[in-house]
Amino acid sequence: MDANWIIEGLINYLGLIVLLTFHEFGHAWVALKCGDDTARLQGRVSLNPLVHIDPIGTILLPLMMIFLPFGVSRFMIGWAKPVPVNPYNLRHPRSDDILVTMAGPAMNLILAVVLVGLAKAGWLMHQVPLAHVCWQFASLSLMLCFFNLIPIPPLDGSHILRNLSNMSWETYANFARYGFIAVIVVLQIPLVRQTLGAVTDGTQLLLARIFGLA
């Protein structure tokens, strides 16, 4: 395996850890603002990556994408340990649950905008390596945003589906117990990866045009 491929994959992995940390912080912070302090009591309203690590979504799956030979280090995705939310503590359980759910993807979208802006600044200052890294991380942040909208537990899109279908928390919890298996299986479908890649690239191109990046 090419050493440059591994190095780039590991750099992306470090970026993934940072982006997932902000993603989960967004969930926990919005939950607290909506009246639920469950995440705060468990130390999850934090930018410390260690409190958010999930063995499968943060370690196993992303590292497999680096070292297994099916060429998806560009397609780096994963998830962190889900932020605990007690819906009975939320001031408006249905709408607040959607707000908490969307906070993670929204955080990734905001980070992507900031990173594309930093890439632009890097180009203006002739700091090409900095611009390149910011551009890569912006792509990764957008990929995480759209990946998490897939409606399969433990991903955020599944919470939106649960609200729309009026699924009980107990039923959802039963699905979520084995959801990571379904996520891994779905990611083997080329059309899913191609769609995520197309949406990610299209959004990043739009941001590039907004910031005047060729």
Mean pLDDT across the residues is: 90
> In total, how many domains does the architecture comprise?
1
Query: Which structural class matches the secondary elements?
Result: mainly alpha
For the report, how would you describe the main beta sheet?
Answer: none
* Residues in helix, %: 55-70%
Stretches with pLDDT under 50, minimum 5 residues: none
Principal-axis shape = globular
What's the count of strands?
0
The ordered H/E elements are HHHHHHHHH
Strand proportion, as a percent range, falls in under 5%
Whole-Å distance between the termini? Answer: 32 Å
What does this structure look like?
The protein has 214 residues and is mainly alpha-helical. The protein has helices at residues 3-33, 38-41, 55-67, 93-124, 128-147, 156-165, 169-176, 179-186, 190-210. It has one domain. It contains nine helices and no strands. α1 (3-33) packs antiparallel against α3 (55-67), α1 crosses α4 and α5 (128-147) crosses α9. The radius of gyration is 17 Å and the shape is globular.
From the structure above, extract its key features.
globular, 214 residues, mainly alpha
State the gist of this model.
With 214 residues, the chain is mainly alpha-helical. The chain has helices at residues 3-33, 38-41, 55-67, 93-124, 128-147, 156-165, 169-176, 179-186, 190-210. It starts with a helix and ends with a helix.
Protein topology:
Elements: H1 3-33, H2 38-41, H3 55-67, H4 93-124, H5 128-147, H6 156-165, H7 169-176, H8 179-186, H9 190-210
